[in-house]
Specification:
The structure is a single chain. It contains 17 helices and 18 strands. It is an alpha+beta fold. The longest helix is centred in the last third of the chain and has 20 residues, at 387-406. It is globular and about 70 Å long.
Length: 460
């Protein structure tokens, strides 16, 4: 593959920001997942769209695969260089290019993280609310169509991306969309690239919709006697139109793990975490009172308020620590985490049946969920060297995914496909999979853009 020549050309373009050092290659061989690492041959750190274009032209010249890399927080093998090639680390493209308070939008380079963006938005009265938990890059969140805890009120990345700058497989730069809030001009290329996981091109700039900061915010946590009671409370809150900003579910095993890891003292019961955003403290209090009344009808107990910023931060840090709390249950283990999303009318049933399956797991298993939109996750703390445990985790995942599909749901609500969920996408998409292949061929005829992810192409 002429790697030495390719590295020489890349160093002429980038200098020391092109590396074949083993330490760099190993660091970029995986994300936060159980999937086997995939070692890239070269790692590049471009600082502009033009440099990304140059990298991709060199990759095309030598026939090398290209794997975009953000914060490395993906969980379905999206960043693993399973065919080698060039990993393009976007984290030096980390400038907030423009903020328009009047238009409530911003344009950022792909390596900007969500926390960095919100820091830049201080004193504007605006915020970027998409919160997948990890401090992911905006480019990575766009590429995986991320969402998270606030999607119930503010939508997913699909609803918050207005336009993109993308470098295609041959190095050409293209712009998709405009800053207008709506358009009916031609194919919606912007949202074709949202969720494409680096298989169609490298996203270098993102124009985002921003939201006003609420005047008042409060949070609460409530325990329930059963999983079903907790989930039904969340479902009825949505059906009644209560304008909650977040509704998060933790099963009792996850609560126990969080208590141990985050030094909290939550009741060892299934729990819901809520957050309310409003124009006034009175509005927020009214929302919370209605939700508390609904929780009481389903046996809710130990309702606790968190009105101060510091209290809310402690509460949501405990929720966001779920991954690491599960990992800490078994030192030396890895976390196999996966998700599904179902219509909310089937959510309680899907969660209950999945929980029953988890009872016999030969490893610690926990559950969390963005239950306001029908999305939940399971986390298994497994020994990836144990073939029996890996097979058991695969069986549990398959039962959960096929159950969700039978209920009219999807194999992933926010983790994406990567390499880990390709077999389930075949079941979910059916004949539409060939249309996806046609799109891939049109943008990447040589199958060099993050190959082996989302769809299997000819000759693979």
């Amino acid at each position: 593959m002429h790697l030495a020549e390719a590295l020489g050309d890349l160093r002429s373009l980038l200098g020391g920001r092109a590396s074949a050092a083993m330490a760099q290659r190993e660091q970029h061989s995986r994300g936060e997942s159980y999937h086997a690492p995939g070692l890239p041959d070269i790692v590049c750190f471009p600082q502009s769209t033009e440099e990304v274009g140059g990298v991709l032209k060199i990759a095309a010249r030598y026939g090398l695969p290209v794997i975009p890399f953000g914060a490395g927080t993906s969980v379905e093998g999206q960043v693993n260089a399973i065919r080698g090639g060039i990993t393009v680390d976007m984290r030096e493209m980390n400038r907030v290019l423009r903020v328009s308070p009047d238009d409530m939008d911003a344009t950022v380079q792909a390596g900007v993280t969500r926390k960095q963006l919100n820091k830049a938005l201080e004193n504007t009265g605006l915020a970027f609310f998409i919160d997948p938990g990890a401090d992911a890059t905006i480019g990575g969140m766009t590429a995986t169509r991320a969402s998270g805890t606030t999607a119930i009120r503010y939508g997913t990345m699909s609803a918050n991306v207005l336009a993109l700058t993308v470098v295609l497989a041959d190095g050409r730069v293209t712009a998709t969309g405009t800053r207008a809030r709506k358009s009916s001009a031609g194919y919606d290329l912007t949202h074709l690239f949202v969720g494409s996981e680096g298989t169609l091109g490298v996203i270098t700039e993102v124009t985002l919709r921003l939201h006003p900061l609420p005047e008042a915010v409060s949070a609460a946590v409530c325990a329930f006697g059963t999983v079903e009671d907790a989930v039904r409370t969340a479902i009825e809150a949505i059906q009644l139109g209560l304008p909650v900003a977040r509704i998060e579910f933790l099963d009792d095993r996850q609560v126990d793990a969080v208590n141990r890891y985050s030094k909290t003292s939550l009741p060892l019961l299934p729990m819901l975490f809520f957050e309310f955003h409003g124009a006034s403290a009175h509005e927020v209090d009214d929302q919370a009172a209605m939700l508390r009344s609904l929780a009481d009808e389903h046996g809710g107990r130990d309702f606790q308020w968190a009105r101060e910023v510091s209290e809310r931060e402690v509460l949501w840090k405990a929720r966001h620590d779920a991954y690491f709390a599960t990992l800490a249950l078994r030192p030396g283990a890895s976390v196999w985490t996966t998700d599904v999303c179902v219509p909310i009318s089937r959510l309680a049933e899907c969660i209950s049946e999945t929980r029953r399956d988890m009872e016999g797991a030969p490893f610690p298993a926990t559950m969390v969920g963005h239950v306001g939109d029908g999305n939940f996750h399971v986390l298994y703390a497994i020994d990836v060297r144990d073939a029996g445990e890996m097979a058991a985790a695969d069986r549990l995942t398959e039962r959960m995914v096929l159950r969700a599909l039978e209920m009219g749901g999807t194999c992933t609500g926010e983790h994406g496909i990567g390499s880990g969920k390709m077999k389930y996408l075949r079941v979910e998409a059916g004949a539409a999979l060939e249309a996806m292949r046609a799109v891939k061929r049109a943008f990447d005829p040589e199958n060099r853009m993050n190959p082996g992810k989302i769809v299997v192409m000819d000759g693979e």
